[in-house]
Design goal:
The protein is α+β, with helices and mostly antiparallel strands. Helix content is 44%, strand content 20%. It is globular, with a radius of gyration of 23 Å.
Length: 310
């Protein structure tokens, strides 16, 4: 009799534990959804309403098992078929929980399928993210599974939400040409619009090389300042805030999963690469294109693939 009573108590105990876990999961899902929707609603009050363009994208995982995401920066004030201002490839390996970031300089002079030779950022204007995918595959042998076109105002909103007191950056020089607002040198906290000026500035002696360097620097700064488990509960709202400003074929669940891994496993550290790599290019002037980067494709293809696979 006592044995049967003990068994009943055990069953009740496990039922109570199971019920508690189920309620906890429901609460977490509910909290995540509420925070995400709150972020979306917050941004929709600010974003200019317009119909989103849906792109065909025939992407796949690469031969190394990585998920490569084509990141394109755009300005909503420009025409839909404008050249992409920023081109990056984010590489995520789920088994290792690692992230890597490759910046593709926009003035690289390459063959664009069906359009001859042009600066690589022309691929977006000619055929959207799918043509950019084909161009990167043809020239560098890289497979891309997803794309994300990010409106720069989404970057501003994300920074202001995640860092209400600004992001601490050491601005290395005065930056005023073709950026708004202008920046003065020195260690300071930048809000979203100021940080956008910092990562977009390129009108100095080193031009686009300096801009790419600053973009990579800021990504690692953001990771370190967001770092830790205390940030994870904020992720649903942060993703919601930026979602109205992103055109992507990724679903929200995948974005949240990768963002969590980025913050908790990588501690905000992301290895970076720039294409073209050092000593692999010249800078001729091409009629109709202006100054371009003529690159050693074999050398850059090898560096790109080696960087992702290691």
């Amino acid at each position: 009799m006592r044995y049967e009573q003990k068994q009943k108590k055990k069953k009740k105990k496990w039922k109570a534990i199971l019920l508690t876990l189920v309620l906890l999961v429901i609460a977490i899902i509910g909290y995540t959804y509420f925070q995400y929707e709150q972020g979306v609603s917050q941004s929709l009050k600010k974003v200019e309403k317009k119909s989103q363009v849906f792109y065909n994208f025939e992407g796949q995982k690469d031969q190394y098992g990585d998920t490569n995401i084509l990141l394109l920066g755009s300005d909503a004030r420009e025409k839909e078929n404008s050249r992409s201002d920023t081109i990056m490839v984010a590489s995520y390996n789920e088994n290792r929980g690692t992230f890597k970031l490759t910046s593709i300089m926009r003035d690289i002079y390459v063959s664009i399928p069906g359009h001859g030779k042009h600066k690589i950022n022309s691929a977006f204007a000619y055929g959207g993210p799918e043509l950019m995918r084909k161009t990167l595959k043809q020239n560098f042998g890289i497979d891309l599974q997803y794309y994300a076109i990010v409106d720069f105002q989404g970057f501003v909103q994300l920074i202001d939400e995640a860092f209400p007191n600004g992001v601490e950056v050491d601005v290395e020089k005065k930056m005023s040409a073709f950026v708004d607002p202008p920046l003065n040198p020195g260690l300071q906290r930048l809000n979203g619009q100021q940080l956008l000026s910092y990562v977009r500035f390129r009108h100095d002696a080193i031009g686009d090389f300096g801009r790419v360097q600053r973009q990579q620097k800021v990504i690692n700064l953001l990771g370190k300042q967001l770092m830790g488990f205390e940030t994870v509960p904020k992720l649903p709202k942060l993703v919601g805030v930026v979602k109205p400003y992103i055109n992507t074929n990724m679903n929200t669940t995948d974005i949240l999963f990768m963002a969590k891994d980025y913050l908790t496993k990588n501690k905000g550290n992301v290895p970076t690469l720039r294409i073209p790599v050092d000593n692999s290019f010249t800078e001729p002037r091409i009629k109709g294109e202006g100054d371009v980067l003529a690159v050693d494709l074999a050398k850059n293809k090898q560096a790109f693939n080696q960087f992702i696979s290691e």
